[in-house]
Amino acid sequence: MRKKSHDNTENRKDAARVAAALCPVSPLLTVGCLLLAWQWISAREFISHILVPPPAEVYQAFIDSLADGALVKHASVTLEEMLYGLLLGVGVGLLIGYAIAKAPLLESILSPIIVAFQSTPIVAYAPLLVIWFGSGIASKIVTTAVIVFFPTLVNTIVGIRSVSPNLRDLMRSLKAGRWQMFRHLEAPSALPVILAGLKTSTTLAVIGAVVGEFVSQGSGLGYLVTSARNLYNTPLVVVAVLTMTAISLSLYGLVAYVEWRFLVWRRRPSL
Amino acid sequence: MKLSLRELSVSFRDPDGRAFSALGPISFEVAAQQFVCLVGPTGCGKSTLIRVLAGLLPATSGSARCDGELISRPMDQFAIMFQDANLMPWRTVLDNIALPLEIDGVPRASRYETVRALLPQLHLGNFEASYPAELSGGMAQRVALGRVIVQAPRVLLLDEPFGALDALTREKLSLDLLRLRQRNVQTIIMVTHDISEAVLLADRVLVMSRRPGTLVEDIAVELPRPRRSHMIYLPEFLRLAKRVRESIETLNSL
Ligand SMILES: Nc1ncnc2c1ncn2[C@@H]1O[C@H](COP(=O)(O)OP(=O)(O)OP(=O)(O)O)[C@@H](O)[C@H]1O
Ligand SMILES: [Mg+2]
Question: Do B88 and A180 touch (CB under 8 A)?
Fold first, then answer.
């Protein structure tokens, strides 16, 4: 009896070890399987190549667009819009979020506007932003900023409001000033929530930039998608879309790294 | 420093907005360097009283003074220890204990030096780089105690500081507290629900009534100092503990 339960825990430990070893490579496995399925489907021509181009054609389109500089040019435009948009939207979100968390009155004044804004689809008012901010980069930055503003705002409010009242009392009893209260208590305790919001924001940023590019043409990956589609160049469309994915995953990864690096105290103790 | 409470009372509002009285009116004095323990039924306003003395909560009426000065904000040379350790989870043991010094603008090198000198006495020698999540309850309370000690307070307010610990650990910690106190004798007000802890540590035990808490008994403890854990077997100790217990039991039977 005892022997058996011992074996069981041993087995479970082995299983846990295998799972731990697989963990870093398992996303690669998923991607590999998807690629195989894609290759298989297009090789059998279940679906026309115009709809689902085979990986080789997409790869060729990738090489070509790299060679003529188009991909890098459009990707860097989109990336630039995203970064400025993130800077603006996250910056304003942090400021207003902090102000609202500290002054409930401000919340009741601002919340109708904020809720109205948030419940309107960005695609619907993106054209308005183009009318206001022109068809250049500014309108795309604003579209991105608007879309990343909300998760930052909400997470900042939640983060600052969830500061432990007992720690607040401790800081008051130590006669901490306003700035010290922020620097030593509010900022560090809200940081995990704010970084979680930032992760959401980075993935939304690409949506904002591309929606902006759809609405007013010119350059960027969104423009590349539209123009390639008009030429029935499906492989290039796929390349553009995958590039967006890569950009947003890299930014997400960057924030995840920052999280890992700065929230040492939240890392789970190793097994 | 001497504390005096005069007709102090605090009321709160319940969720319907009606005011109710949570504490007092209560009056007593604590002489400089006296150690006073506060016992009373749950919800009688002990934590509220501590918060008023800490300058974290205004009195609704009456007053609390320290050497004649009205306590209306956190005072210099006061330190408070809460029921749970109340540590910052993102700071290491070292940085948690050093927090008060950091707030006071002490440079990093000298505050670390101060704290490192203290760690062995707190039995935290090997844990300076640990985070609170990695500590046991008793260790976390020692960190909180360290954070109080570096403030070198003249008045110490303790709200059930060892409440969450087992009997032996709390006895050890409270005697640690007494030992650390010998070097720098402070005025101490400590809330506890443990009768023998109260008698073992205090010069006076104050028994409070049910909410709103008022003073029902003021018992002087004349055991010799330094106090030792074996004193709990002395007839005088037993007599005092019995008196405190009877006083609380009378309350409960009312
Ligand atoms: N901020 C507050 N708002 C409203 N009511 C409060 C507040 N703080 C305390 N109370 C109420 O005041 C009463 C006294 O609370 P207090 O925390 O001082 O009791 P206590 O004696 O410390 O109890 P315990 O022994 O359980 O810790 C309780 O009824 C409590 O619910
Ligand atoms: Mg209490």
Answer: no
**pTM for the predicted model, two decimal places:** 0.80
- Looking at residue A234, its pLDDT comes to 85
Say if CB A214 and CB A226 are below 8 A apart.
yes
Tokens of A110: 């601002």
Strand pairing class (B3-13; B19-30): antiparallel
CATH number of A55-266: 1.10.3720.10
Identify the residue among A170, A191, A264 best suited for mutation to test binding to B, counting B beta carbons within 10 A and taking the highest: A170
Interface predicted TM-score (ipTM): 0.88
Domain ranges of chain A: 2-44, 55-266
Q: Are residues B56 and A169 in contact, defined by beta-carbon separation less than 8 angstroms?
A: yes
| Residue among B79, B88, B133 minimizing CB distance to A167 | B88
- Chain A residues whose CB is inside 8 A of the B51 CB are 169
Per-residue pLDDT of B142-176, as tens digits, reads: 899 889 988 888 889 999 888 777 778 788 888 77
Structural domains in chain B, CATH included, are 3-77+153-253 (3.40.50.300), 87-152 (no CATH)
CB–CB of A269 and B82 under 8 A?
Answer: no
